[in-house]
Amino acid sequence: MRQDNDLINHTFVFLGPSLEQGEAEKILKAHYLGPVSQGDIAGLLWQKPRLVVIIDGYFNRVPAVWHKELLLALSQGVKIFGAASMGALRAAELHPFGMVGVGQIYDWYKSGELTRDDEVAVLHAPKEESFRPLSWPLVNVRATLAAALEQNIITKESAAALLNIAQNDYYPERTVASLLAAGKTAGVEITPEFRQFCAAGGVDRKRLDAIECLKKAASWQKNPARPSSPDFVLSDTIYLERLIGEDISLEPGSGSGVTPRLLLEYGRLSRGFMARELSAQLDMLAESAARLLNLTVSPAELEAEAQLFWRERAINSPIGINNWLKQNNCHINHLEQILRRRLLLRQLLFSGDLPLSYYYMDMLRARGTLRLEIARVRELEEKWQSVKHLLAPENLSEDDWALILQRARAAIGDEEGRFSLEQIATLLGFNDVLQLVRQLLKEECSQLLKKDDEP
Q1: At residue 193, does pLDDT exceed 90?
Q2: Is the pTM of this model over 0.85?
Q3: Contact call for residues 15 and 33 (beta carbons, < 8 A)
Q4: I need a surface site. Which of 22, 59, 218, 230 has the fewest CB within 10 A?
Q5: Is 11 helix (H, G, I), strand (E, B) or coil?
């Protein structure tokens, strides 16, 4: 059966120390991310995931994945599988709501046989070292002891004693060597066969469950069921709004903990923050006013706004668009919301009782700079009136045009010289290029005439 490439492109796996990614990729085609943490699932929803598999997750260094964000994804029809580690924990808690649990560890948690989170906790290396396990998780100790009992290479008394020692070890310090050494110190009978069994890895229950889960997800991926309506109603609480607005992960699976809230906190003391804050506040205003006034935008308006957006950024190819979206952590659905707010804000601005110039004047008045600006404009306008006959656009030299373009780019901070005069005119709100050029001539007339007088 031919696989659905769109479904593969919308499949995500959170994987860490339980299984090597290379082995996982042979089982399930997907986007592989690191262990899941708080905000990661909510942060994925912009990408419209259809299938999510959770194997590993953080819980110590950064907050653990939140139940509410998993419920949010389930309520939107996302198929979620969980196993082996954090996935087994969350699946045991959320299976009544549609999350699918797989494997022995999931069964242990679901039945109540296991209740402690540290049963699956493991110290591991960073991503650069493929999340290599550095400690021995307690569920693997249990599975290894059970298998050893079946093989008659350990007694029940020794197995119980070693399990008791392992349960009392702090999880980052629990290793095969430390457990065997502690057992020897405690006088536990340990056979050579059991030592060899442990040295060979024992039973890696987490790995086995991860493989089983990926196989079941792959089977579903080949023959997906249509999304069904959830059997629960997700309450839209202030905590959920805070998660979506402030605490979604901007780098799902990285464990970095970077969220919109942190961006704002670190941005407050950066240069130019007040202007950026005002721009964000205008977006908030556009959203709120649109709801109150029932403002809408049409698909045709969105398409035209998208074309303008890419012209402003001198991007004119699908490859350029995709590169921009990747570089700016922006999904096409997120971009559509940005464009929608731009259109709504423009509708609001044009619906004012007075033109923009009136409100601009009042802004200067409120800032206490109106009189200074009046004096500056008066001086420039008087100078222009006396020399404008010398600076008709059709009489400008190539050097004059170069100076005008340089000044225009400086006005928008285009240090790389990416924007044309046409694009700059649009960005600054001029009706056309000619209006922009005339304004630049007004402000640069002294410099242009001085250059012409030089020998």
Answers
A1: yes
A2: no
A3: yes
A4: 22
A5: strand
